[in-house]
Each structure stands twice: as structure tokens, then as C-alpha cells.
Design brief:
about 525 residues; mainly alpha; Hypothetical protein af1432; 8 strands
Length: about 525
């Protein structure tokens, strides 16, 4: 009894425990469902936020792409508009060239018509003379037949003799007249060709000076350029070889030097220093070195501009750079690059009129004075140097032969050479083209620097104050302080012996010692 009761109670406990387990499990399941629903709602909300964020980003990206595409379209439209404008200008220029050529052709056609009319008149005149001769012959025959005692053969011989003498006389007179007319016409044609070439060239002329003016933002900048105890201005003058004049001129300093390249280098260096604001000796040396590199590039660009203006192709880069140097070179006050372009224009125009090779003429005209870019550094006349340079850098034989004869040092090898010589004379000899005084002054300063540079141990020499002072920088390793004083005296004596000059010349010898180390 007790056992069955225990079993019954155990079963009840098991059933009740199972029911309790089911109840608990049901409740936990409901909670899990609630949690799942909450998580689902959170996921949906987060997905909505992410979708909204992605939508906003997509809209911004689409707007940015639209703006970029719009900018690209506007830029392309602007570029095309510029190209169309350029094409329109080129077409207008071509139309003008065609109009000029048409006028030349019309003039030549009129000349041909005139010559044709003259030939027709001359042919008619010859026909009249032939008819006159035939009449004379008939009269002679009748006269001979009338004369008694003269055979027909003798009459023919006498008539032939008279006709031959008359024909010879008229032929000689005709030849003389044709020769005189030919001389007159050839002279008129030559004058017409030269005058047309000069008128169509119409080149400007600029007189170079020996000073340049640099504008300053204020007069306070003059003090900074001078520096403490003048150290900045001394560093500038030593680095560039230019005399810097700071006077009462408002907001400006004056650069004085006979060498235009030095003046240009000094001008660019001062403008950079003023713009930068840092002005001290170390910075000055750094800027001057940078300006030298920039000036080299500027020389190349000037040379390229010249050959583009003349539409010349296949010129070596070395010659292009030398052409750029000619912009800063003068001959009797005339800019050599401008003079070379004038000679090229004139030579090409005359070559076209005469029907010879215009390419040889224009290349020889442009390069005929290329030796002046190096004649201050290399021995020889500028003509000899021009021939060597053009021959060295691949110009044709006809070109450097024409250059060799442009001062009549040798006989003219071709018609193109004659045209180059004539164009050189026209460009140089026209009124106001050259000034001999400036060239003489520059040569005197060059000789002054040459005397100083010939002294052993001299690193640099600069003629300043219009030739009234020569500053000489010597190498400290080769010349001591005592020898520097002796060098100044010896150079002054040499200048006195070899150079003619007004007044006196101050000789300043500078010996500078530098010690440089690096903290690492």
C-alpha cells in the first residue's frame, strides 16, 4: 500500500514537473518571440536609416557628377570657341595674303600685257622694214635694168652689197637700242623689287640703352636692398656684375651695365627678392643662380619666337639658343636679333621676286650674324664664327657660303648671297638704324674687362660706373692680401698703357675668404 502510494505520488510529481516545464518553456518562447519581433523592428529601422543615408549620398554624388560634367562641357565649349576664333583669325590672315598675292599677279599680268604689246609693235615695225627693203630691192633692180652696159650678175652683186650694208647698219642701231632699253628696264625692276621688299618688311627699330629701371613697391624697400652697412647691395653687384644706383628717384632703382644680359639678370633677381621679402647675401646668391637658369630658358624662348615668326624649320637647338642671345646684343646701337629678322625678311622677299631659292635666303639672312652671340668669348670675326657655327650645326653649304660673303670677304657664290648682302646693307644703312658712339663705348668697356681678366688669378671682372670703375674678384687660393694690392697696381698700369679713356678709372680688387661647414 505504501509502495503504490509512493509510486502514485512519484507519478504525480513527474506529471506536475512536466506541466511546470511546459509552462516555463511556453513563457520563455513568448519572450523569445517578443525579442525577435523587437530585433526585427530594430533591423528594419536601421535598414531604413541606411537606405536614407545611401539615398542622400547617391544624390550628392549624382549632383557632384552633374556639376563636373557641366564644368567639363563649359570648358570644352570655351576651348572650341577659342579654337574657332583662332581659325577665324588664321583664315582672315590667309585671305589677306591671298589678296596681296592676287594684287601682285595682277601687276605682273599688266606688265606681261605691256611687254606683249611692245613685242607686237616691234614685230609690226620689222614687217614694215621688210616691206621697205623689198621696195628698195625692186627699185634697185629697175635702176640696174635701166643702166646700160651692166650685166644682171653685176647688178645683183651691187644690190646685195648695198642691202647688206644697210641691214648691218640698222641691225647695229637696233642692238644698241635694245641694249639701252634692257639696262634701263633691269635697273627699274631691281629698284622696284628692293622698294617692295623694304615696304613689306616694315620692321620696327628699338634703340638699346645701358641702363634699366626697376620699380619698387615703396621707398622703404630701397633701405632693404642696400642692407646693413651696404652688404646687400654689394652682394647684388658682385653676383650680377651690374652697378646698382639708389638715388632720389621715387620707388625705383637704376641698373647700369654695358652688358644687357647682366642688366636683365639683375632686374629679374631684384624683382624676385622684392616679391619674396627675404633680402640677405645668402638669399641674393641663391636667387641670382635661379635667375641664371630662368634666363637660359628665356633665351631659348626668344630664339624659338624668331624662327616661328619667320616660319623656319629644322634649326638645331644650339642655334636657337644663340639666336635668343642676340636679343641682348647690339651693333652700333641696333638690336642684332631684330636686324637679323629684318635681313631674313628682305632676303626672302627679294628671292621670291627673282625666282631663286627663298629658303636659303631666309636662313642665311637670319643666321648671318649668329657669330656675334659668341664673339666676346671666342677669337675670330663674327663672320668667321657665323660660318663655323652654321657649318657645325648642320646648315646647307649654300647657307654658310652666303653668310661668308655678306661683308664681301669672299666672292659671291650665288644670287642668294648677293641678296643677303644687299638686305644686310639695307637694314643697317637706313637712317637711324645704328649709332656708332654706343658701339665704341661698349667696346671700350669690353676691353677694360678683358685687361682685368687677363691677369692670373682673376675669377671675375665687372666694368661699372660707365667705365669709371673696374671691380675685380680674385681667387683667394691663388692671390694673398699683399698680392691683391700689387694686382690692383699692375692692372691700373696696364689699363693706362693699353686703353684710351677720359678722366680716371678706379681699380678695386676684392679678395674674399669663406669657410663653410654643415651641421648634421
Amino acid at each position: 500500500m505504501n509502495l503504490s502510494l509512493i509510486i502514485t505520488l512519484g507519478l504525480l510529481f513527474l506529471v506536475s514537473g512536466f506541466l511546470v516545464f511546459l509552462l516555463v518553456k511556453k513563457r520563455s518562447g513568448a519572450k523569445s518571440i517578443l525579442r525577435a519581433k523587437q530585433e526585427a523592428r530594430d533591423i528594419v529601422e536601421k535598414a531604413s536609416e541606411d537606405a536614407e543615408k545611401i539615398k542622400r549620398e547617391s544624390q550628392l554624388e549624382a549632383k557632384e557628377k552633374y556639376l563636373n560634367l557641366k564644368a567639363d562641357f563649359e570648358r570644352q565649349t570655351r576651348d572650341r570657341r577659342h579654337k574657332l576664333n583662332d581659325m577665324e583669325r588664321r583664315l582672315v590672315k590667309k585671305e589677306e595674303n591671298l589678296e596681296r598675292k592676287f594684287q601682285v599677279l595682277e601687276r605682273k599680268e599688266r606688265d606681261f600685257s605691256h611687254k606683249e604689246h611692245m613685242l607686237y609693235s616691234r614685230e609690226k615695225e620689222i614687217g614694215d622694214k621688210e616691206r621697205k627693203h623689198e621696195g628698195l630691192i625692186r627699185k634697185g633692180l629697175e635702176e640696174l635694168e635701166r643702166i646700160a652696159g651692166m650685166s644682171q650678175g653685176e647688178a645683183k652683186k651691187e644690190l646685195q652689197s648695198k642691202v647688206e650694208e644697210e641691214a648691218k647698219l640698222e641691225a647695229i642701231q637696233t642692238l644698241r637700242r635694245i641694249e639701252e632699253e634692257t639696262k634701263e628696264k633691269s635697273q627699274m625692276i631691281a629698284q622696284d623689287i628692293i622698294s617692295q621688299a623694304i615696304q613689306r618688311s616694315a620692321a620696327e627699330h628699338v634703340v638699346e640703352t645701358t641702363v634699366s629701371v626697376v620699380d619698387l613697391p615703396s621707398d622703404d624697400m630701397k633701405g632693404r636692398i642696400i642692407g646693413r652697412e651696404g652688404r646687400n647691395i654689394r652682394a647684388l653687384e658682385l653676383a650680377t656684375g651690374v652697378d646698382i644706383i639708389v638715388d632720389d628717384t621715387p620707388e625705383a632703382v637704376i641698373l647700369s651695365s654695358f652688358d644687357p644680359i647682366r642688366r636683365e639678370m639683375a632686374r629679374l633677381a631684384i624683382e624676385k627678392l622684392v616679391g619674396d621679402g627675404r633680402i640677405h647675401p645668402a638669399r641674393i646668391e641663391e636667387v641670382v643662380e635661379n635667375v641664371k637658369v630662368e634666363l637660359e630658358e628665356k633665351l631659348r624662348q626668344e630664339g624659338e619666337s624668331a624662327i616661328l615668326e619667320l616660319r623656319i624649320q629644322n634649326i638645331r637647338p644650339e642655334l636657337i639658343k644663340l639666336l635668343g642671345k642676340l636679343k641682348y646684343r647690339t651693333s652700333y646701337g641696333q638690336n642684332v636679333l631684330q636686324h637679323s629678322k629684318e635681313v631674313a625678311h628682305l632676303s626672302a622677299l627679294m628671292a621670291k621676286e627673282l625666282g631663286v631659292d627663298p629658303i636659303v635666303a631666309i636662313r642665311a639672312g637670319l643666321l648671318h650674324d649668329i657669330g656675334k652671340a659668341v664673339d666676346r668669348d671666342v677669337e675670330g670675326t663674327h663672320t668667321e664664327l657665323s660660318v663655323k657655327l652654321t657649318k657645325k650645326y648642320g646648315e646647307k653649304e649654300a647657307v654658310y657660303q652666303a653668310i661668308a660673303s655678306h661683308h664681301r670677304d669672299v666672292d659671291f657664290p650665288s644670287i642668294e648671297a648677293v641678296l643677303v648682302q644687299a638686305a644686310d646693307t639695307l637694314s643697317a644703312a637706313r637712317p637711324g638704324a645704328r649709332r656708332e658712339l654706343l658701339e665704341t663705348y661698349i667696346k671700350r668697356l669690353e676691353k677694360l674687362e678683358g685687361i682685368a681678366n687677363s691677369y692670373e688669378g682673376v675669377a671675375k671682372a665687372f666694368a661699372l660706373q660707365a667705365g669709371r670703375e673696374i671691380r675685380i674678384i680674385v681667387e683667394s687660393q691663388k692671390i694673398s692680401d699683399d698680392k691683391a694690392a700689387l694686382a690692383a697696381k699692375e692692372i691700373a698700369e696696364k689699363i693706362k698703357e693699353e686703353l684710351d679713356y677720359p678722366g680716371q678709372i678706379k681699380v678695386t680688387v676684392i679678395r674674399e675668404m669663406r669657410a663653410v661647414e654643415y651641421a648634421r
